[in-house]
Each structure stands twice: as structure tokens, then as C-alpha cells.
Amino acid sequence: MPVVVLLLLAGCTLQAWCDRFNLDCEPPDDTVHDAPPDSDGDVWPDDEDCAPHDPAISPSVDEVCDGVDNDCDGLVDEGTPGLQTWYRDRDGDGYGDEGWSTESCEAVDGHVRVGGDCDDSRPGIHPGVEEVCGNGLDDDCSGDAPECPFADLSTSDDALSSFLPDDSDGVIGHAIAVGPGMLGDPDLHVLFGSPQDRYRGVRGGGVYLVRGSYAALEYARDAVDSLPLLTSLEEGDAVGTAIVADFDVNGDGDYDLVAGAPGAESTETDEGVACVLVSPVGGLLRRREADCALRRVGGREGAAFGSSLATVADETRWAGAALAVG
After folding, report:
1. Distance (Å, rounded) from C-alpha 49 to C-alpha 193?
2. Which residues are bridge partners to 310 per DSSP?
3. Cα distances (angstroms) measured from residue 79 to each of 5, 64, 67, 75, 195
4. What was the pLDDT predicted at 110?
5. 108-126 per-position pLDDT tens digit
6. Could you read off the pLDDT of 183-224 as tens digits, one per residue?
7. Rounded to two decimals, what is the model's pTM?
8. How far is CA 210 from CA 225, 244, 272, in A?
9. What's the whole-number mean pLDDT along residues 266-291?
10. What are phi and psi of 173, to 5 degrees?
11. DSSP string spanning 23-87?
12. CB-side exposure of 139: number of CA atoms within 13 Å?
């Protein structure tokens, strides 16, 4: 029996035997394959190493703060303890603009470590300085520019300027307003109402304007030095009892002057009117020459229409405001 089996095995080829029993009879591959090049010997092939000639740089090393991409992830110094944010400091006050920053492990020229400067063009404005009230600036970068609070009572001797009417009974300053652009310029001008002012012997009242600059204020020591805008030749008109200078009457984008004359004749009775001077004001107008068409319909004698004036916010109107007359 064993002789027969051996004879059968001898009569079969090796391939037939492998096929018969589904065996893998491929001879071993003796070919020698070359390893990928690794120029710096850090076990990372050159095509996977971002610095193939520097063994200290490869994907397996830790990132350090040195301005180099040590771990080959495309980022520099990320997450390292020494990385700091530096803010540009154009005015050299030691506080930088947080809108202009960079990250670096070392000091950056023209930059500082502390941000928070809200105006990097003014060295006197930055966090920590003393706020100056009334200058319109946010000196300490706190987010607001406070107005000056009431501090103490003052006398007329403390005032920058005093304005006295020619007539001691003129009561100049009975009404005061600030009017931008009254003379066709961008300046703010001060307007004074003097309802008992006398003009050409008639006590009809008036409105005066002082140009809005310190030079003009220091010069204008009385009503003669100011610019009269509106007066009256009607006794008792009381022009200037109330004034408003922040209302755009005609919609041209410039504020106009509205002055109350509560003693003026409206139609047949002395019930009062309100007069409008459209800016820019060219010179003195008499009450009869101004547009004094604002009057109370169905009024009565002595109603004193125009004794008070105010602008009221009203978004439903084209000017965004309405004029209230009392």
C-alpha cells in the first residue's frame, strides 16, 4: 500500500498538487526594495518631513515658541506657553490698538503687550488717564465722554461774557437757544431773546445772535456788539419771549429760527404769533417783515400764543420732529 501512494505522488506535478488542495505554492519574493530617502535620519521620509535636512523638525516633535513650524502641521508656535499677543502702538503711549495685533514669542517693533487704546492717534487718550469732562473726548477709553456736572454756583463776574441791552428793561436772556448754521456757516451761534427790548423808541422786543466763537464771545460785551436778527416796531409784541433754533421749517436740511411774540396782533386780536426766520439769516428783520403766520386758530384776546416753544421728536413727519407752540 505505501508503495502505491508514493508512486501516485511521484506521478503528480507540484502545481497540480497545489491546485488540487487549493494551496498557495508561490515561491518567496527575493527582490530587495530600497527604503524611501530620509536625508536627516529622523525616521521621517523626505516627502513627509517639512524640513528633510533638519533632524530637529518632523511631525513627531513638540512645537516650541521659536518662530518655526517644528511639528510640520503648517502652523507656527501654536499653543506654546511663550506665544504672546502684541498690539500696534502708533502714538507711543504704551497702549495699543486691539484692532491691529499680531502674535509673536518676541517683542515686535512698534507694538506693546497692553491693548485698549480707543484712539491710537492721541497719546493723551488711553485707559487710566483722568477723564476731562465736557471736551467731547473719551479720554480714559471707558466708552463715554461725560459732560461736566454742576459744580458750584457762579456769579456774573465768573462769566466769560456778559450781554447787556441798551435799555435796562430789555430783559435780554429771557430765552436762550443755540442755533447751528444760522449765518450759513457750520458754527453754532448763541441766540438771546429780549422781549422788552426797545427799538427806535418802541418796546416791541427782539432776538439777538452772538457768533459762536470764543473770540466773538469775548468781544461782544453788550447787545450792541451782537447781531440783531428780529425786532418789532409794534408796542408790546414781546418778540423773543420764546425762541427755538433746532427746527428745520422748510426741509432744506438747515435749522431755522422760530421766535414767539405773544403780545402781537393776530388777525383782529392781540392773541400772539410765532415768527419764522429761515436760515441763513441775512440781516435784521422787523416783525412785520418776517413770516409770522404761526397763530392759534379761533383764539381769543390775550391768549399769548407764542409764550413757549419746543421741538418734539415725531418720526411720522418728514423732518423727524414737530414744533410745539404754547
Report:
1. 85
2. 324
3. 75, 9, 12, 10, 75
4. 94
5. 999 999 999 999 999 999 9
6. 777 777 788 888 888 777 788 888 887 776 544 454 444 444
7. 0.47
8. 8, 15, 26
9. 64
10. 95, 5
11. ---PPP--PPPPPPP-TT-SSS-GGG-SSTT-TT-STTSPP-SSSS-TTSSS-SSTT-TT-EEEE
12. 12
Residue 244, beta-bridge partner list? 258
**Residues facing residue 260 across a β-bridge:** 242, 274
Top-tier CATH class for 162-325: mainly beta
Spatial separation of the C-alpha atoms in residues 126 and 308, rounded to whole Å: 44
Contact 278, 298 (CB under 8 A): no
How many whole angstroms separate alpha carbon 186 and alpha carbon 34? 84
Contact yes or no for 303/271 (Cβ under 8 A): yes
Mean pLDDT score, 43-69: 83
Q: Which residues are within 8 A (CB) of 13 and not within 5 positions of it... i.e. 6 or more apart?
A: none
The residue among 290, 177, 198, 297 whose CA lies nearest residue 242 is 177
> In whole angstroms, what is the distance from residue 272 CA to residue 306 CA?
6
User: What is the rounded CA–CA span in Å between residue 51 and residue 61?
Assistant: 12
Give domain limits for the chain.
Answer: 162-325
* Beta-carbon-side half-sphere exposure of residue 8 (alpha carbons within 13 Å): 6
- Please state, in angstroms and rounded to a whole number, the distance separating the CA atoms of residues 93 and 120: 8
Altogether, the residues listed in the chain come to a count of 326
Q: Are strands 188-194 and 273-277 parallel, antiparallel or unpaired?
A: unpaired
162-188 per-position pLDDT tens digit:
655 555 455 777 888 887 777 777 777
Three-point CA angle 239, 245, 251, nearest 5°: 115
DSSP line for 236-286 = T--BTSEEEEEE-SSSSSS-EEEEEETTS-BTTB---EEEEEPSSP-S-EE
Quote the DSSP letter at residue 162: -
